[in-house]
From TrEMBL:
InterPro entries, per database record: Peptidase_M20, Peptidase_M20A
Keywords noted in UniProt: Zinc
Protein name (Swiss-Prot/TrEMBL): M20/M25/M40 family metallo-hydrolase
Record-linked Pfam families: Peptidase_M20 (PF01546)
Species name: Aerococcus urinaeequi
Upper lineage: Bacteria, Bacillati, Bacillota, Bacilli, Lactobacillales
Length: 133
């Protein structure tokens, strides 16, 4: 997910940084705006809880099956819709050349479901130092 978002942000010339948490799992930071003034951050998470034995599910957990007007998929109603809304807003602002009077940062971490491990490490490493809101 972090790779996909980094590639998407690159198309809009939005600066990103991936901070590896573990092999194959990275936190992602995306920044835009004036970096020397007030800084705002919004946060989301990139991963989902493991599905366990997928054969015990009524619908396969990663199938994205649609039945009637409902979609069945692991993480369908999780943070991903909120996360992508934030991503789209940032890309739209950049594309329109919005003159922000602050900087905006999207902070997407791994491990939210398991003790907020990604966020805790990012805080400890100083990635939210100087955030105003």
């Amino acid at each position: 997910m972090a790779d996909y978002l980094a590639d998407l942000f690159a198309k809009y010339d939005i600066e990103t940084q991936q901070v590896e948490y573990d092999e194959g799992r990275s936190n992602l930071i995306a920044d835009m705006g004036k970096t020397k003034v007030k800084k705002s951050v919004v946060s989301g998470h990139l991963d989902i809880v493991e599905a366990g034995d997928e054969y015990e599910w009524k619908f396969r957990p990663f199938s994205g099956e649609i039945t009637g007007d409902k979609r069945y998929d692991r993480g369908t109603s999780d943070m991903k819709s909120g996360l992508f809304a934030l991503v789209i807003i940032m890309c739209e602002l950049k594309e329109e050349g919005a003159d922000l009077n602050s900087s905006a940062r999207i902070f997407d971490a791994v491990g939210k479901e398991i003790g907020r491990i990604g966020s805790k490490r990012m805080v400890k490493q100083g990635y939210i130092d100087g955030i105003d809101g």
